[in-house]
């Protein structure tokens, strides 16, 4: 999974403004309905994404396998995060988010 700059900025803003507890961030969690974004803490086996020194997003191996090679982007017009395929996103090479976990 990759994260666009705009998605990372939105997640960072939300973590700093909306997450009350230190050490918490957003997690992609899988449910029967698909992927959910929940507030949680980083666990040892998580894949973690940091942006500008802030832990913004984590996901476990199950969620990583489910989202695969999708790209998490932020749509400014709709004010929502969304997943898209690489062929739907024109500037994947511009993504510069540090991933501090191992991905398959």
Explain this structure to me?
This protein has a single domain, classed as Hypothetical Protein Aq_1857, Chain: A, CATH 2.60.300. Helix content is 20%, strand content 39%. The chain has helices spanning 5-18, 61-67, and strands spanning 2-3, 24-31, 34-41, 47-51, 54-59, 71-75, 80-84, 98-99. The strands form two sheets. The protein has a five-stranded mixed beta sheet with strand order 3-2-5-4-8. Strands 1-6-7 form a three-stranded mixed beta sheet. A hairpin with a 4-residue loop joins β6 and β7. The longest helix has 14 residues, at 5-18. The model is unreliable at 92-96 (pLDDT under 50).
Keywords for this entry:
104 residues; alpha/beta; Hypothetical Protein Aq_1857, Chain: A; 2 helices; 8 strands; globular
Whole-angstrom Rg: 13 Å
Q: Mean of the pLDDT scores?
A: 85
Shape: globular
Task: Count up the domains.
Answer: 1
Distance between the termini: 10 Å
Which regions are unreliable across 5 or more consecutive residues at pLDDT < 50? 92-96
CATH topology: Hypothetical Protein Aq_1857, Chain: A
> What percentage of residues falls in helices of 4 or more residues?
10-25%
Please summarize the sheet with the most strands.
5 strands, mixed
Q: Strand arrangement, largest sheet? A: 3-2-5-4-8
Count of individual beta strands: 8
Q: Which CATH class is shown? A: Mainly Beta
For the record, the CATH architecture stands as: Sandwich
Order of helices and strands: EHEEEEHEEE
Coarse structural class: alpha/beta
Strand content: 35-45%
The CATH homologous superfamily: HesB-like domain
- Count of helix runs: 2
């Amino acid at each position: 999974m990759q994260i666009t700059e705009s998605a990372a900025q939105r997640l960072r803003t939300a973590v700093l403004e909306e997450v009350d507890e230190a050490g918490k961030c957003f997690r992609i969690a899988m449910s029967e309905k698909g992927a959910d974004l929940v507030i949680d803490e980083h666990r040892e086996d998580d894949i973690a994404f940091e942006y500008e020194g802030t832990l913004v997003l984590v996901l476990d191996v199950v969620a990583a396998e489910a989202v695969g090679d999708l790209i998490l982007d932020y749509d400014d017009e709709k004010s929502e995060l969304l997943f898209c395929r690489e062929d739907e996103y024109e500037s994947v090479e511009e993504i510069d988010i540090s991933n501090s976990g191992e991905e398959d």
